[in-house]
Design goal:
The complex is a heterodimer of chains A (381) and B (903).
Chain A lengths: L1 E6 L15 H22 L4 E5 L10 H11 L6 E4 L13 H9 L5 E3 L6 E3 L4 E5 L24 E7 L20 H4 L4 E5 L20 E3 L15 E7 L6 E6 L3 E10 L5 H17 L4 E12 L1 H17 L3 E9 L8 H13 L4 H19 L3
Parallel strand pairs in A: 1-2, 2-3, 3-4, 6-7, 7-8, 8-9, 12-13, 13-14
Antiparallel strand pairs in A: 1-10, 5-6, 10-11
Chain B lengths: L2 E10 L8 E4 L3 E6 L6 H13 L18 E8 L2 E8 L8 E6 L4 E3 L2 H13 L3 H5 L6 H7 L9 H6 L3 H5 L14 H4 L7 H22 L8 E3 L4 E3 L5 H43 L6 H103 L1 H38 L4 H20 L3 E3 L9 E4 L2 E2 L5 E3 L2 E5 L5 E6 L1 H21 L4 H23 L5 H17 L13 H63 L3 H27 L1 H42 L5 H59 L4 E4 L5 E5 L6 E2 L5 H23 L4 E5 L7 H18 L2 E6 L3 H4 L9 E4 L1
Parallel strand pairs in B: 3-20, 3-21, 19-20
Antiparallel strand pairs in B: 1-2, 1-4, 4-5, 5-6, 6-7, 8-9, 10-13, 11-12, 11-14, 14-15, 16-17, 17-18
Helix pairs in contact in B: 8-19, 9-18, 9-19, 10-16, 10-17, 10-18, 11-14, 11-15, 12-13, 19-20, 19-21, 20-21
The chains are: A alpha/beta (381), B alpha+beta (903).
Chain lengths: 381, 903
């Protein structure tokens, strides 16, 4: 049996999106968690080998400072490490990209192998063979799988490492076009296919098209969340593998970065309890994730009474001032309300504002300001 | 709610009032009259200061008297309650005292400032925001109202402000001035509570404007930014936006620099990679010199072999080329001969065809010419016919003249014959001559005259006895009565004349005359005038006929003959009828036919021209072709000579072919040997030599590559360090944050501008809603006052702008007479008061200071009647101050005053 710690998409050096002024903390955490995986998680769980399925670095031109630091970090473990390139750190032969540099920095460290070509790598003492599907360019559409030879009795456990997509996903610059078949492990008689590139499952992992246990295919997922849309805690995958047996995999949460999108939707007849409970739940989340680098993005939408909007704003400001973990995405509209004597006038002004042709968010904000000014200038409370 | 009523006022030590004086006011119109200096102004001022002002402050000297401090105590109704405000005035602010008591609840405010403000709130109903602040923060209020520290009389208005106070108690003399901006107007609307609403609206506008001006000096809405292209629309209008944009732009630039650095680094990395691969491929052999020597020797050997083979090939090539050249020359001559032959044949055949063409063309030309002549003949004939026919009418005219002449001659002859005949008949008739006629007439006249003289008498009731016979004028008379002309003879049976009466003279002359007449008749062979007259008539008729005939005017025969001859001569001179066959067509048709022929002629001429040219061309070309054929034949014979000469000079054709084959074979054999040697020159000689050189230079080269790699790495290190490359991610994160902030600020600015605009729009809408009401009310009175149809036009702020009277042009308010302006302002003020009281459903107390002093009696009466209507409808209390009491108490105005206080 071989115990493999599988990981991918460390994206070291990545600019963190959506963490505001805390970004640097989240970015530094990428490195700290990587270090923790190599120096703590792997030995503690008795891993025989660590595989990194692409995108160790975020940029092919990662700074040497970071490369040196990474090399030093990797050297800290005695466990063999096998690295393949991903689309972010592709092994472009015409450029000295980050992995080439890392390779030089590592020098004669024979236990850390950066695979540069697609050829089987047999590890005699572990009784396994690694099939590295390295990427040679950011958009490498070549066949990552066809080169894998048929099973030989000396291969031992056949472990495929890949970086890519088994279905289309994403948009814009990050769009991925399906370039791998979900059945590739079966097709190529691999005991497991370990994949990088997708950082997190969308929604429930079990029902995700990326979950292919029957096909002996596993995404490792990123060890750290890297932007607001990554709402899950990062992990690594511990895999116990034997020849021609289904792999036993165990996810281990290792992430410290925690992005939560907290939606609060008010319909026109929401109850006060709902409001209270939503405010409370935010405090609970803060409590729950106190050990994490936490960003809660409150996305409030729907129609809310003005006094509740005011309360919400105060509550959010309180939360913000106590720690720097709250972001407030305000998509709320104000319900026509009772503001003492000026009720009628305020409603009239709101109507005038709403009658304009500006964007809804501008009109909503103008109405919110109106209430604020009215409260301050006319003393509505 | 505002001041509804003043019950009473107590004044002591106030301006002209030294001792305590109490005035009670009633509902309705209170007239306060008195001469100048009687104390009207003091009373009015006491009310204003008592209700509105702080009791202490510099500037109160004008109301001071020596000795005790001025005191004013007013009992009034406001907000439905009854209050007493008591004020003791002092020059020193802290010494002024004000106490406000609610008589309904006995609640008493004796903190001076609070009492003053509460009182003002009650009286104006529009000072809430200030009042509201009393509890929390009093000190700014001092500033707000203690401008009164140095107030003088005129400044009381400033204290009142442009609000309700100034509407109810306007500054003295203000009525005839132009209205200034008056917030009262802004505070009126149609909804209940609008006063409050508008106050609030004002505050919100102020706030929104404040927030906006913090950002923008002008209202702008379109904010756009593009960090990449450094485009910022209206960002500079907003300090916050501008600074945020600039900050974001700086970050963008730094991220962009990183990107540039990134691509620069990529280049260097590529170079580094190529250096490394060069370094790796560098051989590391031993016995380098020997290896180099061997390589150089083999290169030399190869060179020798190659050069010898190449020489042979070159010489064979030369010979081959020479024989090729010879054959080429000969073939070229042959080719020329053949070409020339072909050309000659071609030209000859061309010549034949050209000759045919020429012939055809000549034929065509002749045909065309013939046709042309035919057409010309046709035209000429046609022309002569056209000429001839064109003369037809003239010729006919001449013919007619000649016929006419003949006719006339004939008529003359006929006439003459008729005359002879008639004269013959006439001669046979023998009428009386003119003398005879005159004699006859003369005699008849005389007879008649004689008979007239023989005047008859009447024979009446003749009763001729039987046996007697009466003869009258010789005839037997049997009638009972009758006339007697010449004689009456009665005879008896015995024929004895018993009576005979006669006129014998006359009878005798008549007989004579008649006998003369008969003589003439006898000579003419007639019996009497009747017959003679018939004869005469017949004669006259013939004579008339004769005269008619004689009167037929004819030219003389000579003249006619001459005319006829003339025409005959002229006819002879006319065109002769053409000899050709006369065409049947009309002249117009002939013309068109002529035109057609003309067109045919023209067309034919063109064709003929073209044919002529073609003919000329063909003649030239056939001549040229003939020349050319001759020339070519001459050239051909020369070339044949040249060919023979070439054959004599060199070998004949078959020998030449053989020689060429031999030379080619020799060349190809030589080339097969030299070609491989030549192509392997680069590797076997140059490559080997270079390798040898490289081997010799090997260690040196490795060192160079090594140092280049070091250099490149140093450069990369330098770039990374210099550009702070490790901060790339951090800069990206900061840029993202800055962009978010910038977008948020744009949103916020837009929202503030939108809010401000919406508020102002709403305010404007509210103002607009007042106009119709104000306009209606004010114009109801205007019509009454200035005649039907008179209108007061309000400006956009709602103030009277001009007055339009029926049939007169519009006059601007400030150009109106003093009296009219006074009236307009009063009406305007009354209209406002009416609107407010209607809306608030409250009665009001207001003062008028000699309001109609400049108005004529009629208008004054009308306005007073309007005022009375307003008062009784709204149960208002009005205090009218005047020095013309009689204006309100005499004449038709008597009875309008409810309470009269004489000072």
């Amino acid at each position: 049996m071989v115990r493999v710690l599988a990981t991918a998409d460390w994206q070291l050096g990545k600019a963190i999106s959506g963490a505001g002024e805390q970004s640097h903390i989240f970015r530094e955490q990428l490195f700290l968690t990587a270090e923790k995986i190599v120096t703590e998680i792997a030995p503690e769980h008795g891993a025989d080998i660590i595989v990194i399925c692409g995108d160790l670095f975020d940029r092919p031109e990662a700074s040497w400072e970071l490369i040196e630091r990474t090399a030093e970090m990797l050297k800290k473990t005695k466990i063999p490490i096998h690295i393949i390139s991903g689309n972010h750190d592709a092994l472009d032969s015409s450029q000295e990209t980050c992995l080439w540099k890392l390779n030089r920095e590592l020098g004669n460290q024979s236990d850390i192998i950066i695979h540069k070509t697609r050829e089987p790598h047999h590890i005699e003492n572990l009784g396994c063979t690694i099939y590295p599907g390295v990427l040679n360019a950011r958009f490498d559409n070549s066949d990552q799988v066809g080169w894998i030879p048929e099973r030989n009795k000396n291969d031992g456990v056949r472990i495929g490492l890949f970086h890519g997509a088994i279905v289309n996903f994403g948009e814009g610059d990050d769009a991925r076009i399906k370039n791998l078949e979900p059945t590739l492990a079966i097709d190529k008689n691999l005991d497991i296919a370990l994949l990088g590139d997708w950082h997190q499952p969308k929604g429930d992992e079990e029902n995700s098209p990326m979950a292919q246990p029957d096909n002996r295919l596993w995404y490792t997922w990123a060890p750290e969340a890297q932007n607001l849309s990554n709402n899950k805690i990062g992990r690594v995958l511990m895999c116990d593998l034997e020849v021609s047996k289904d792999p036993k995999t165990t996810p281990i949460e290792v992430g410290k970065n925690c992005f939560i999108n907290k939606s609060i939707e008010f319909d026109e007849s929401y109850e006060n309890e709902y409001f209270e409970s939503e405010i409370d739940s935010i405090s609970e989340l803060i409590e729950q994730y106190s050990e994490y680098n936490l960003i809660i993005r409150i996305i409030a939408s729907g129609w809310v009474k003005e006094e509740d909007y005011n309360r919400l704003e105060i509550a959010v400001n309180d939360l913000k001032s106590n720690n720097n973990k709250i972001m407030f995405k305000d998509k709320l509209s104000i319900l026509p309300t009772n503001l003492d004597k000026s009720e009628n006038m305020i409603n009239q002004i709101s109507e005038t504002i709403n009658a304009s042709e500006e964007a809804k968010e501008i009109k909503d904000l103008a109405i919110k300001l109106l209430y604020k000014y009215a409260r301050q200038e006319l003393g509505g409370e | 709610m505002t001041l509804q009523r003043i019950n009473s006022i107590e004044i002591e030590n106030f301006r002209s009032y030294s001792t305590k004086k109490v005035f009670n006011f009633e509902n309705g119109l209170n007239l306060i009259s008195g001469e100048n200096g009687a104390g009207k102004t003091s009373l009015r001022l006491a009310i204003v200061l008592g209700l509105f002002s702080r009791p202490g402050g510099k500037g109160l000297e004008s109301i001071m008297r020596s000795g005790n401090k001025p005191e004013v105590k007013i009992e009034f109704v406001a907000e439905g309650g009854t209050y007493i405000i008591e004020k003791t005035f002092s020059k020193t602010p802290k010494d002024g005292v004000a106490i406000l008591t609610n008589l309904d609840t006995n609640e008493r405010i004796d903190i001076t400032d609070e009492a003053v403000l509460k009182c003002r709130q009650l009286v104006t109903g529009s000072e809430e925001s200030i009042i509201n602040k009393i509890d929390g923060n009093f000190s700014p209020l001092n500033d707000a109202i203690s401008k009164g520290k140095s107030f003088s009389e005129g400044e009381v208005t400033k204290i009142l402000g442009n609000n309700m106070g100034s509407l109810l108690f306007p500054e003295q003399g203000r009525l005839v001035e132009l209205f200034e901006t008056n917030d009262v107007l802004k505070n009126i609307g149609l909804d209940k509570n609008t006063l409050t609403t508008n106050n609030d609206l004002e505050k919100l506008i102020l706030r929104a404007n404040g927030e906006r001006t913090e950002r923008l000096t002008k209202v702008k809405f379109d904010f756009k930014f593009d960090l990449e292209n450094n485009v910022a629309i209206n960002m500079a209008a907003n300090k916050k936006l501008e600074s945020k944009f600039k900050a974001a732009r700086v970050l963008w630039e730094s991220v962009d620099n990183y990107k540039i650095t990134e691509s620069k680094l990529q280049e260097h990395y590529a170079k580094l990679e190529s250096l490394r691969s060069e370094q790796e491929s560098d051989s590391e052999g031993e016995n380098l010199d020997e290896l180099a020597k061997k390589l150089e020797e083999s290169a030399e050997e190869h060179r020798e072999k190659r050069e010898s083979a190449e020489k042979k090939t070159s010489s064979a090539s030369k010979e081959l080329e020479e024989s090729k050249q010879l054959q080429n020359d000969r073939e070229s001559i042959k080719k020329q001969i053949n070409e020339l032959k072909t050309e000659i044949e071609v030209n000859k055949s061309k010549l034949t065809s050209e000759n045919e063409n020429l012939q055809k063309c000549e034929e065509k030309y002749e045909t065309s010419k013939k046709k042309m002549d035919e057409v010309k003949t046709q035209i000429s004939e046609l022309d002569s016919w056209i000429d001839y026919k064109g003369d037809d009418s003239y010729r006919q005219d001449l013919q007619t003249i000649m016929t006419d002449c003949d006719d006339e001659l004939k008529k003359i002859d006929e006439n003459n014959k008729k005359i002879v005949d008639i004269e013959q008949v006439m001669r046979k008739i023998n009428p009386a001559s003119t003398d005879q006629w005159s004699k006859i007439n003369e005699l008849r006249n005389e007879i008649s005259v004689a008979k007239g003289r023989l005047s008859p008498w009447d024979l009446n009731k003749s009763n001729v006895p039987s046996g007697y016979e009466l003869k009258v004028d010789g005839e037997e008379f049997k009638e009972k009565s009758g006339k007697i002309k010449s004689s009456l003879v009665m005879t008896d049976s015995k024929n004895k004349v018993i009576i005979s009466i006669s006129n014998p003279e006359e009878s005798k002359s008549i007989d004579e005359l008649e006998s003369q007449l008969n003589e003439i008749f006898t000579s003419l062979g007639v019996e009497g005038t009747g017959e003679l007259r018939i004869r005469q008539e017949k004669f006259d008729k013939l004579e008339e006929g004769l005269n008619d005939i004689k009167n037929n005017k004819f030219r003389s025969k000579e003249e006619i003959e001459r005319s006829k001859l003339d025409s005959e001569n002229k006819l002879k001179d006319r065109k002769k009828k053409p000899k050709s066959k006369e065409p049947e067509s009309e002249l117009t048709e002939l013309f068109s036919k002529r035109n057609q022929l003309g067109a045919i002629q023209n067309a034919n001429e063109e064709i003929r021209d073209d044919l002529g040219k073609e003919l000329g061309g063909l003649q030239t070309s056939t001549k040229n072709l003939e020349d050319k054929v001759q020339l070519n034949e001459k050239d051909n014979s020369e070339l044949n000579g040249k060919l023979e000469e070439h054959r004599k000079l060199y070998i004949n054709d078959s020998e030449l072919v053989e020689k060429l084959a031999i030379n080619r074979k020799t060349f190809e054999e030589a080339k097969a040997v030299s070609d491989p040697l030549t192509s392997s020159k680069e590797t076997e000689e140059d490559g080997a030599r270079k390798k040898a050189s490289n081997i010799r230079k090997g260690s040196e080269n490795r060192n160079r590559i090594g140092s280049e790699i070091t250099e490149c790495k140093t450069l990369i290190d330098h770039i990374i360090k210099e550009s702070d490359y490790s901060k790339y991610a951090e800069a990206e994160e900061k840029l993202e944050l800055a962009k978010d902030e910038l977008e948020l600020e744009v949103l916020k600015t837009k929202a503030i501008v939108l809010l401000q605009q919406s508020l102002e729009n709403l305010k404007e809408d509210k103002m607009e809603s007042i106009y119709p009401v104000l306009q209606t009310i004010i114009n109801q009175v205007a019509g009454h006052l200035y005649g039907n149809g008179a209108k007061i036009i309000l400006n956009k702020d709602g103030f009277p702008q001009s007055l339009v009277r029926t049939g007169r042009s519009k006059i601007k308010f400030e150009w109106e007479s003093y009296g009219t302006r006074e009236q307009l302002n009063l009406l305007y003020r009354l209209a406002l008061i009416r609107i407010i009281s209607d809306e608030e459903e409250t009665s009001l107390c207001f003062a008028l200071d000699d309001p109609l002093v400049n108005s004529d009696r009629l208008r004054r009466e009308k306005i007073l009647s309007h005022l009375n209507g307003l008062i009784s409808k709204g149960e208002h209390q009005v205090l009218v101050f005047t020095c013309h009491a009689e204006d309100y108490t005499t004449g038709s105005t008597a009875g309008t005053v409810d309470h009269h206080i004489k000072l």
